[in-house]
Amino acid sequence: MATIRDILSHKGTSVQTIRPEATVLEAAQVMNRHKIGALVVVADNELQGIFTERDVLRRIVAEQRDSASVRVADVMTTEVACCRTTTSIDEARAVMKNRRIRHMPVIDEGRTLLGLISIGDLNAHEANAQEQTIYFLHEYIYGRT
Question: Which of 94, 93, 103 is nearest to 126 (CA)?
Fold first, then answer.
């Protein structure tokens, strides 16, 4: 059974983070610079929340708030669904589907941040697994070419 560890071993464990006291404008600039849709909010090496494109749309744009003066801590999502490296990919996909989220931090037992997965990572892993299956079936049916 494939686990989140499999995805992180391919993707890597680098995670873009932001401080809770940073402004939304600063967070958006970091997200744009790295071409990502979410930042993990960390203070004192501890997970505080997650700040996503959805937070910008719902809590800044829709409410016509000034991104240069609003702090990330005031608009981030604090109820963060997390997983562990031993979590199965199917379980992570189910959580993301049921909670309607696209990003999930990976933590250890002490809540130390180990990585971040996205629905795109899960889809890419599944597509790769399907391509391998097709290749092996083709080799089995038609022999090596």
Answer: 93
Q: Which residue range is the domain that position 28 belongs to?
A: 4-142
What is the Cα–Cα distance from 35 to 16, expressed in whole angstroms?
Answer: 11
- Mean pLDDT in each 10-residue stretch from start to end of the chain (145 residues)? 93 95 98 96 92 96 96 96 96 96 93 92 88 84 78
Query: What is the β-pairing status of strands 113-118 and 103-107?
Result: antiparallel
Phi-psi region of 12 (alpha: psi -120 to 50; beta: other; left: phi over 0): left
Give dist(CA 15, CA 104) in Å, integer.
Answer: 11
Contact (CB, 8 A) for 88 and 2: yes
pTM (2 d.p.): 0.84
Cα 30 to Cα 46, 51, 82, 137, distances in angstroms: 20, 11, 22, 44
- Domains contained in the chain, number: 1
Could you tell me the CATH number of the domain that includes residue 82? Answer: 3.10.580.10
Task: Output the CA torsion 115→116→119→121 (10° steps).
Answer: -40
